[in-house]
Structures are given as C-alpha cells and as structure tokens.
Design goal:
The complex is a heterodimer of chains A (about 60) and B (about 450). Chain A has about 60 residues and is mostly helical. The longest helix of chain A has 15 residues. Chain B is an alpha/beta fold. Chain B is built from 14 helices and 13 strands. Classes of the chains: A mainly alpha (about 60), B alpha/beta (about 450). Chains A and B meet through helix 1 and helix 2 of A and helix 9, helix 10 and helix 11 of B.
Amino acid sequence: MTVSVWLEHAIQDAERRKLPELKPLLEALARSTSALRAADWNRDLSGASGTTSSPNAR
Amino acid sequence: MHADVRTITELARQIRAGTLSAESATEQCLARIAECDRDINAFITVTADQARAQAREADRELEAGRDRGPLHGVPISLKDLIDMRGTPTTAASRVRAGHVATTDALVTTRLREAGAVFVGKTNLHEFAFGTTNEDSAYGPVHHPLDVTRSPGGSSGGSAASVLAGMAYASIGTDTGGSIRIPSSVCGLVGLKPHLGEIPIDGVVPLSTLLDHVGPLCRSVEDAGIVYHALRGVTNPPPIRARDVAGLRLGVPQPYFMDLLDEDVRAAFDAMLQRLSRAGAAIEDVAIPHASYAPPIYVHLALPEAAAYHAPTLESQPDDYSAPVRLRIETGRYILAEDYVRALHGREALIADVNAALAGRDGLLLPTMTIPAQKLGATTVSLGGTEEPVRNAMLRLTQPFNITGHAAISIPCGKTREGLPIGAQIVASQTAAVLEIAAALERPLEQ
C-alpha cells in the first residue's frame, strides 16, 4: 500500500470514528512513514533499496 | 533535604557519623514538600506516614548493626508509573482512577532492600507520553527555579522533587529521553542505563522495546549508588573516575549539532575546550542514520503504546487528555510492514553508534538542543526555523533509546538567564558512562 493510499484510508477511518482531529497527526505520520520507507537499509523484491534523503518529518 | 547535606553520599556519611538520622532527613524532605509543593506540584501522592515508619526502622537497624549500604535511610521519590504496594499508580491519568498497587515493582523491592525511604510518587506527563509535564490529570509540574517554565519530562516531577530538596534522588523512566531531559533542564545528573539492565516489571509501559528505568540525582556518585541498588547490588564499589587526560571522546556532528540554541552551543563548546585543555582527545564522528531516529522512534513507540492502551482507548477515551489520546490513537494506524522497517532501521542505527564508539571511550554531545521552556510554548526558534518544542527536546536523546546504549546527562553550564544546560555521555556500558561522567564532573566544577 502506498503512503498516499494509506493516508486516504486512515483519514476516512478516523472520520468514521468521529476523530477528525486525528487528520493533522496522520498527515505528519505519513511524512514520517515516507521518510522511513526511503531509507537505505530497506531491501525488497524489486531489488531496489531506498535513497538516503534526509527525513525532516516526524 | 538538609540545607548543607545535598547528596546521598554526604547524607550516608552523616547518618553513620551520628550527626543526622534517617528520621530527621526524612522529616526535612517532608517539610520541603509541605513548604514548596503547592507551587511546584512535583508530587501526586505523598507517603509521609510510610516514609516516617521506614525511616525509624532504618535508624533502628543501624543502631542494631545492620547496614544495608549507602541508600540506607535515604529519602527518595518514585515516578508515578512505578508500582509501590498499597499506593495508587496513577500514571498522571484519570484512566487509572481507583488503581492501588498490590505489589511492588521489582525496582521498588530492590530499593526497599537497599534501605531507601519512599517519600512519595511524582507527577509526570500523562503515561510518560510527552516532554513538558503539561498534560497531567494532576496539573503541570513547575520548574523550581522559575515556576513559569516546564521542568522537562516526562519525569518532570521526579526532577523537580530532587532540585527542590524534597528528595535526595528520584527514580524515573526514559523512553525517548524522559530521565535525561528533565535532568538537563533542572541541572541534575540523570542516568539511562543500558537497555535491559534494569527490570521494568511493575512499571506502566510506554514502549517495552524502548523503556528504561534509572535515577535522577545531584551527583554522578549518587547516580552510581542508585543504579547499583536498582540492579540489586546494595554495597557497590565506588565509581573510579577515568583520567581526563587520555580520554578519547567522539562528538557526533551532522544532525546532532545542526540545531542548537545559542547558549547551549556556547556552553557545550566551552566544555569541549576545557576538556581539550585537560588532555582529552575530542574527535568529530558521524552517525549516518541519525536523522532517521524520529521516524524509527515513531514507528516503534506508537504501535507499542497503542497495543497497551487499546482496551481503555475504547472504554475510557474521555479519561485521557486529548493530546495524549490522539497521539496513542495515531499508533493504531501504523502498518506492520512499517513497524518492521523501523526494526531494521534500529539495527542500522545501532551499527552506526557502535562504529562511532569503536576505539573511543564514549560520545559527548549536548543533552538537549534547548534549555527550559515556558509552560504553554509549542514551538521554539532554532537555526532560523520554528521547531515544535517536543521535537527539539527529544532530538538528541531519542536516538539512544532506539539503540539502547547507556547514556547520562550531567550539568555543563548555564544560559545567560541562569537556566541549566546539560551534556550527554553515551557509551556501550553503563559503568563506562559513570566513570567518564565522574571524570568530566570534576573539571567542570572548576
């Protein structure tokens, strides 16, 4: 699941649970997850590792 | 606390010399609590009667020739995440209303066996889920040096209790910096022992993968005494300070030194200069994955917290403070695959820190990027950008919760306003951070 699809589903679920105030936290988490997935230690079946871009999100 | 007897070491000496008793030392701490805690709010529960009974028993034992070691008869406080039988463990949350611990945490048992006297349970950021102590069902803790400021957190009540002379030491917990941060902000010594050394049984968890228990004290020697008691060693050998001349210390440069308050940078640079003059070798080192520490931390700590809190998030959501509830709720959305990526990141960070430590005694860096902040502050200006206070406070401590390395905060100077600044020492073993801290404590006092 891509981070953007995950975020869309997460926000929808938070709204369904009557927790719309979670939206900015989930958006921050999405930035953090993108940074995590881009890290150079990640290995997957595509054979590609992540990049080493510096994550500013948390 | 007695005005002239401010450390465990000195109190232990006076108790054995017969110039002070455990009972009188305890009464002095209880008097300080009665005098100042209305303004500081360090304690959630004061266990005065139990403390008096423990102190009298400690004095009786010494008179009878039973000496349990340097903590015998010493008044200390416990962060209110740590079980003490017969008293509530509130975690500073309404969620825990009505709870009374039926048994001691293992660390509480060990402290009892070492003869410690418990004066009370200290306030904290709710469930240790923050760095300022502002979100507490019992109200915020105020800094003893300036009540408009936060004493740091989450072990803020612990730090305030020691700084204000209401206890000779306190036991805190540290998942992202919660012992070292308030120690730095309050000018104390705060030790995070190596991961797994001190048992966390009977301690309300934030993330069992990252949680550490350790002491907040007034000196490195005191931190060593309490650390050994937490390990179950009641008559430890004294710490042997390493020789500053010949110490080889790495200063992590990228990330760690990128965003520092001006006064923190000046105090830390002055410390490095003093150490160099005293003969220490100071070398720049890199921790290549350091900037990934925040995402790794978030993807490990939040799912763990969510798992622990899942039942009460459903049954008592309104009993959490809103900020804490929402942060824990966020953890319920993290995917398992991202948790695994964070576990792999943890290994990468451990390898980085081990490489930086290779051939060196330890790492030396500021404990925090900023000094004590005003209560209510949400952002701070650092390096021309506005940073969330929480991120600025955690930035330099969090990496070593992820890696599990031993770390200690010691005082290293003051801001122009007179607020304390801390320096952090990191090493592979807890004994090493204590020996290096003991060496650095001396030149800094000059």
